[in-house]
Amino acid sequence: MDELPGYSPSFKKPADILRLSRRRSRSEASPRAALFSPGEVARRVPGVRPYSPGTQRTSGGVKRRNPFASLENTVSVKRRAESVPDCDFLKDSYRVPVAASQENPEPSQHTLLEDVLCGDGLEPELAASTKTESPEKPLAPSEPAKCSLTYPADWSLKTRLLFTSPQQFSWTDQLKAQEEAQGLILHCRATPVSLPAIIPEPKQCTELRCAFQQSLVYWLHPSLPWLPLFPRIGADRKMTGKSSPWSQDESLQQVLMSEWALSFTSLYNLLKAKLCPYFYVCTYQFTVLFRAAGIAGSDVITAVMSPTTRGLREAMKNDGIEFSLPLVENEPSRKQKNCETSQSDAAVQEDEYAGEDEGTPLEDSDEDESFSWLEEMGVEDKIKKPDAISIKLRKEKNEVKLDHRPESVVLVKGTNTFTLLNFLINCKSIVAAAGTQAGLPPTLLSPVTFRGATMQTLKARSANVKTQVQSGYKDQFSLEITGPVMPHAVHSLTRLLKTAQRGSFSAALYTHEPTTVFNTAVNDQSSKEKDSSELVNCGLHPHTLEQVTQLSTLGKSSLRHLELSDYMYAWKC
Length: 573
Fold this sequence. Notes:
Largest sheet: 7 strands, antiparallel
Number of strands: 13
Mean pLDDT: 76
Distance between the termini: 104 Å
Low-confidence stretches: 80-142, 330-368
Strand content: 5-15%
Radius of gyration: 39 Å
Number of helices: 19
Structural class: alpha+beta
Shape: extended
Helix content: 25-40%
C-alpha cells in the first residue's frame, strides 16, 4: 500500500470520522446530560411524570414512545400554576376559573396558551376588561320608559324606519290601483279612517291598505326627481355629478327663488290660519321648524332653527328679530333677547353718550368695579387689566363656541316668526353660492298641500328572514320605510301597525341628527296643554293631533327605539 502513488497513511474513511465525532460529543456531554436528564427534571419540578422512553421503533415497525412527552413545556398551565409555589404571577394571570372546571369534569390534557390569553381562562372580571367594544357599535340607548298606551311626540325628522314583528307585513305589498287612489283621496280630503281593534286578515282589509297609502303621503317643494332634496345638510356627495343647469344661470336662479318664496309664503299663511300644523325649511346649512299656535303646548306660532352660527344670529338681530337660546341655561348674558323696543334702545344710547361725556366707557366702568379688590390690596399698578377690546373678544369667543352645536338652537315666537319669514326669503346665505347645491332653493316639507307643492310618497318595502333561536330558526318579518319621515307619519304608521300586527312589533328609528334639538321645550313644563279644537281642520288624524299638541319632553334627545307589547309602548332615546 505504501508503494501506491498518492496514498496517505493518515487517511480515514468518512464512516470512521463520523464514529469518532459521535463518541467525542457523547463523552463531553455526559455531565450536562445527567444534570438535565428527564429524570432529574421530574425530581426537580413537581407535576412532571418520570421519563419512560418505552420501546423504540425497530425495523419490524414497532412505534416507540415519544421521548419529549415528559418535558416541562407540555404540562398544562393550570397544573403548573397549582404545582409551582413560586409562580404567583402565573396563578394570578392565567388561572382557570373553578366554575369552568366543574362544568367540564374531564378537561383536555393540554390547555392552549392562546385560549387563556383570549380570556377563556381568565377570571370573569379580568376577561371582561380585556375585551374592548367595537368602534362601529352604536351607543347603548338609555333605559326604556315605563309601558304606556302612547309615546311622547318626537319633532326630529327621520330618514328611515325599520319595523319588525312576528306577524307578516304582506298586507303592505302590491296595493291595488283602487286602493292606492282611495288612499290619496283620503289624504287630500283629510278624512280620518277608523279601524277595528283586531283585524283577522289584514291583507283582505281594504280600509287598512288605503289608510297605509294615506300615511305615506307628504308634500315637497321644489320637485327635482333626479336630485335628493332631503337631507340637505351634508348632501354634496350625493349630488355630485347630477345635472344642475341653474348653477351658472342667474336668471334661472331668480325664477326658482321667486317660486320658492311664493310657496314659503303660502305655507306660512296656512300655518297662521291653523290649516297646516307645522312644516320644515331645510337649507344646506340649517333647518327651521315652524309650528302653528296650539302645537307643542304653545299658544303662539313658534319657529325653531338649528344649527346656527354667530354670523347668522347677528344678521337676525340686525333685521329686528327677537329670539332666545333655550338650551343656554343660567347664563342671562348669553341668552339673546335681542332687538329691544325703540325706547330701550334710546335709553341705552343715552347712557352710552353720558359715559362718553364723562370720559369713561361703560365697559371700563364695569371693569373698574370688578377689579376694585386689587386697589384694596394695593397691587392695582402691578397687574395689567384687560382693555375693552379684550373683553369684547372674550365675549365673542364665548358666542362662537356655540356655533354648530345643539346649544346654538334658536327659538322665535309670535309675530317675530313673520319677520323671520321675510328674513329667510331675502337672506342670500340660505342658498349655496358654490358647490353641488349652488343656486338650489331650500327644501320645503309639509304634511298638507300648499302652493307649488308636489305630492310624494315614502318608500315601503317588506321582507321575510330567518333568525336563529335556541330551538332552531324562526320567521322574522320586517317593514322598511325610507324618506323624510315627519312626526305625523311616525304616529300614523305605528297606529296602523298596532292594529294590523296584533299589538306586537318593534321599530328602529333613524334620526336626522341636526333636527334632534327640535324636541326642546318651547314653554314651561308646568304650563297647561292647549286646546286643540281650533286645529281640527289642519289635516291630521284626531289621535295624531292629540299627540303633537302635547308639551315637548325629550329635550336634546330623540326616539331611537319603540317596542309595542300587548298594546303597550316602551321606548328608548
